[in-house]
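ugh ok fine here u go
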Amino acid sequence: MSYQYRLDFKVRDYECDLQGIVNNAVYQNYLEHCRHEFLLARGVDFAALAREGINLVVVRAELDYTRSLTSQDEFYIGLNFSMLDRIRFVFEQSVIRQSDNALCLDAKIIATALNQRGRASIPEGLIAQLSHRQEQ
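structure:
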């Protein structure tokens, strides 16, 4: 699979539950970190946007867990960005264990930008920045 962006990770011991596997909620943190790094790689500063009264927010998260990660597993998250409609965009993300190239999680994250009045409003130029395709 080809991704617009890829970020490498390693499971830390404290991210695992009593079963010895990564807790399901931790995957949300992985996915969010990858999205923030993707934004930075495209020249979009999430914190600076918030200071300007523009908040990028998740409105829907679909996660399909297929395999478990365990302590010290090395993995990466592949990310593809696209527009869903004129006010919502999609991050399609996959968590891939590197040792066997196994898909551990597929996610579809739908987001939008809210202006200072709390209305969906994507700033001009933002989509062009995020859509710029760079294969990794």
